[in-house]
Amino acid sequence: TYLSIYLSIYLSIYLSFYLSIYLSIYLSIYLSIYLSIYLSIYLSIYLSIYLFIYLSIYLSIYLSIYLSIYLSISQSIYLPMLITYSYTSYLQFTIYLSTYLSIYLSIYLSIYLSIYLSIYLSIYLSIYLSIYLSIYLSIYLSIYLSIYLSIYLSIYLSIYLSIYL
């Protein structure tokens, strides 16, 4: 019984401290480096491709429809008040302006915004997430694992070893 008590206490304390320190350091370093590198690369590539494709398609469709409707309505309401030319010149002007602006603005804004947002968001999110995850995971895992493993292993091993030895 003396040997079992001694071994249970010794092994529980030793293993709890050793494993908690070792695992907390190892896991915090490994996971922080791995996740920060992996997520920064993955998110930058994924978000840049996804956002570029999604935004370019979405914005080109949305802006072309929206601008063509908006410009045609706004021109039919506001331009007769401003333009006092003949009806044919007004009609030609509105058709030209609505077509030109809807196509130009939809293409320009879709390309510009998709490129800008994809680059900005991919860089921002990759940097932010890599820094955040590396710091957060290293601190959280080291503290959590050291406390959890030391308490859990000391209690579990002392009970387990005292019963079975």
| Share of residues in helices | over 70%
Task: Give the uncertain stretches in residue-range form.
Answer: none
Distance between the termini: 8 Å
Taken from the alpha-carbon principal axes, the silhouette is rod-shaped
Question: How many domain modules?
Answer: 1
Q: Give the radius of gyration.
A: 32 Å
Put simply, the count of helices is: 2
How do the SSEs run, as a string of H and E?
A: HH
Count of strand segments: 0
| Largest sheet features | none
* Rounded average pLDDT: 69
Task: Quote the beta fraction.
Answer: under 5%
**Pairing-aware structural class of the strands and helices?**
mainly alpha
Structure description:
By secondary structure, this protein is mostly helical. The chain has one domain (2-164). It has helices spanning 2-82, 87-164. The longest helix is centred in the first third of the chain and has 81 residues, at 2-82. The model has no long low-confidence stretch (mean pLDDT 69).
What's the short story on this structure?
The protein is mainly alpha-helical and 165 residues long. It has two helices and no strands.
Could you give the topology of this structure?
Blueprint: H1 2-82, H2 87-164
InterPro entries: Plasmodium_CSP_Invasion
Protein name: G-protein coupled receptors family 1 profile domain-containing protein
Transmembrane segments: 7-27, 33-53, 65-87, 93-112, 119-137, 143-163
Features of this protein?
165 residues; mainly alpha; 2 helices; Plasmodium_CSP_Invasion; G-protein coupled receptors family 1 profile domain-containing protein
